[in-house]
Amino acid sequence: MIPKINIKEAAKELGYKDCRSVKRWCNNHNIKILSDIGSNRQYILKEEFETSRDKESLKYIKQKYGIDKIPKTFNLENKINNQRIKYIPQGKSEKEFLASSIFTKN
Q1: DSSP letters along 46-91, please?
Q2: Is there a domain that residue 104 lies in?
Q3: Are the beta carbons of 3 and 47 closer than 8 angstroms?
Q4: CB within 8 A of 95, min separation 6: which ones?
Q5: pTM for the complete prediction?
Q6: Per DSSP, what are the bridge partners of residue 43?
Q7: pLDDT value at position 72?
């Protein structure tokens, strides 16, 4: 199951009192606001929210301290690359197909 955050919870984390501010923040950061069918409760995906919030923090740290002084714990690029799952073929036919000349680098 994909973790979600309610709009009200996101407002608390961002320090907003009103949900309209969160909707504007999500719109400015290209985060889609979702809701279940037949429900008025709105939510956003937790990973998208945290990634956007981390980007803002990184931008501030780079501006204040300079690029060379950023600790490795703030390295967002490594965080995103570590979360990607590489596809590993399972079957014999899949391995043969991916090993064909179309997909190999020459």
Answers
A1: HHHHHHHHHHHHHHHHHHHH-GGG--GGG-HHHHHHHHPPPP---S
A2: no
A3: yes
A4: 89
A5: 0.56
A6: 6, 34
A7: 57
